[in-house]
Amino acid sequence: MLKQFLSKKSQKPLKYDSDKSSRGDSSPSTIDSSCALRTGCWSHIDEDSLAQASTTKESSVPLFLLMNMTVGITQPSMPFKDVPNNDEKLNLFMSKLSLCCVTFDFTNPNCNKDIMMQRDLKRRILIELVDFVGSWYDGNNKFNETTILAMRGMFTINLFRVFPPNYSDDGEPRFDPAWPHLQFVYELLLKFITSPGLDVKIAKKYIDYSFILKLLDLFESGDPRERDCLKTILHRLYGKFTMHRSYIRKSVNNIFYSFVYENERHRGIGELLEFYGSVISGFTLPLKEEHKIFLWRVLIPLHKPKSLGVYFQQLSYCIMLFIEKEQKLSSIVIRGLLKYWPITNSQKEVLFLGEIEEILESIHMVEFQRVMVPLFWRIGCCINSSHSQVAEKSLLLWNNERIANLIAQNCQTILPIIFPALERNIKSHWNSEVVTLTHNIRKTFLDMDKKLFLSCHSRLKEQKVILNLEAEKRKEAWKRLDHVASLKHPLIGNNNHNNSTISSFSPSKTS
């Protein structure tokens, strides 16, 4: 089978078109042209074709194949163990790599037997290449520039493609039918990047900004397996290619900006946040202004989109890493959460309360006192929420020993803010569990400072009396206005009567 596959020859001239680097290009002309390259029959390729192909940076036929047309390539069917010389092994590696530069349309279930055989052959060769790259380096061997260029060409052809429209609109995963090949291409890329035989000074010319951008575009994939591989590869790139770190951070930031401020559609936000978590862990102290801006303009606004629940765990982890690095940021984060607090989305409110609890567990007293007034005003609103999960989550904050200690030390400020909400819950909340929790917290405050508790209780009664009087005055004013409207005499025509009537029922008089 392998012999038959390798003996195919092209009946059509080669075309060097960069558009064939995308997925789905498995037309007969592409396969035939690639088979011609694989057979080693280069006699019909003239110098003009070679020059033309060399000007195409990412053609469907990589430049390294064209460079080897005039010198021949080791037969790709030969196993690596049968080639003792390292240079010959690299030649064999290149020839096997050429077989992997053919792409297939995996969306067609009715492909013929030959195509199935070719797919299976390519998969076996990819596995062989992964094993070779992982075990080839012995302390002296280095990938030369031609090999690096060849690898980039193969990755470009197999990985970089444009996803169909609306590919990332719904939340359901879309498993790529080409994954049996893609997983080994990604594994080969990971082995290649992490190999000690890869010289970064040479590789940076080919693993460049363009390559990184196209790699980031793949995070739009609907296949979670692919995004997970990309996350690992991006992390290894960031660690090895130190000269690209700033560019990688800016490019990822641009994805976040587009997601938050433009369309709120991207499938890879969670994976990109996981990658950024490892980046934040490596930040040195004191934090640069660039990193603080990223926290304020990217991470905190990421709480706004409706799809927060998909990536909330990764987002919360990144924010906590910042707070661990610099405690002063805790009050900034809480103010940001209050700014983007969801008013009509109860599920997001529960997530926000959980994050608030996590921050308060590690906050310093000075930072807590800076935000406790607006924070507990919002918590009071949550206590009175008609959604039982929101009300319970806010009341359960008192079960946290660290938070209860912070509240006890600032009881003089917090209790007057929270007391009216507790009283409203006891009198009117529909959920019995919420009412029970409210009674417990009310008793806690009473035991904590009875004098302050009674003072708040009496103040609340006075406020209710004042509110009732104001309500009565408004009611009386509306009655008078209703009486004026019901008069049979028209108010227009007698200016003196008009003025006296209107002034007698003006708000200043009735209030």
Main pleated sheet: none
The rough form would be described as: elongated
Helix content: 55-70%
Average pLDDT works out at 80
Rg, rounded, reads 35 Å
How far apart are the termini? 98 Å
Which structural class do you get from the secondary structure elements? mainly alpha
Strand content: under 5%
Number of strands: 0
SSE ordering: HHHHHHHHHHHHHHHHHHHHHHHHH
Q: Which residues form runs of ≥5 with pLDDT under 50?
A: 1-73
- The count of helical stretches stands at 25
Concise structural overview:
The protein is mainly α.
Describe the structure.
- Helix 8 (179-194) packs parallel to helix 11 (224-240), helix 18 (365-383) runs parallel beside helix 21 and helix 22 packs across helix 23.
- The radius of gyration is 35 Å and the shape is elongated.
- The relative contact order is 0.04.
- It has 25 helices and no strands.
- 66% of the residues lie in helices and 0% in strands.
- It is an all-alpha fold and 511 residues long.
Keywords, separated by commas or semicolons:
mainly alpha; 0% strand
Write the layout of secondary structure elements.
Blueprint: H1 2-6, H2 28-39, H3 47-54, H4 63-67, H5 86-99, H6 113-135, H7 145-159, H8 179-194, H9 200-203, H10 209-217, H11 224-240, H12 245-263, H13 269-281, H14 289-299, H15 308-325, H16 329-339, H17 346-360, H18 365-383, H19 388-395, H20 401-409, H21 411-428, H22 432-448, H23 450-485, H24 495-504, H25 507-510
Helix pairs in contact: 5-6, 5-7, 6-8, 7-8, 8-11, 10-12, 11-13, 13-15, 15-17, 16-18, 17-19, 18-19, 18-21, 19-22, 21-22, 21-23, 22-23
